[in-house]
Fold:
Amino acid sequence: MSRSSRIAFLALVLAQAAHSIEEYRTRLYDVFPPARFVSGLISADRRIGFTVFNVALVAFGLWCVFVPVRRSWPSARAFAWFWAALETANGLGHIAWAFAASVYRPGLATAPLLVALGLILAALLRRDASAPMPARRREAA
Structure:
C-alpha cells in the first residue's frame, strides 16, 4: 500500500474514534435499536456496553493500521478495503437515517467525514492496485 493509502486509513480510523465519541455524547445507544441491542449484549448498562464495543472497534482499526498494513502483510489491502466499505456504509446510514427523520440523529455530524475518508481510501487503494509494481532491490550478498 502506498504512503497516501496508509495515511488515509489511519485518518479513517481516527474519524471513527471521533464518530464514536459523538455517538456516545448524543446517546446513540438509547435511540438506535441495533446500538441498544449490541450494547446490551456486552453490559446491562448500555452506556458501558456501547463504550466497550466502540473502544474495541477503534483498537481493532489501529491494530489493522499498525500491524498488517505497516508490516505489509498480504492481508493488509483486504483490511483496508473492509474499513473503507464499513465506514462509507456507516456514514451513509447515518445520513439516510437523519434525512428520513428530517432531524439531527446521533452520529450525523461526523458521518460525512466517514463517507469522504472511506471513498478517498477506496480511490487510493484502486490507484495502488493499478500502479506498476516497483522493481525489487536485490539484497547484497
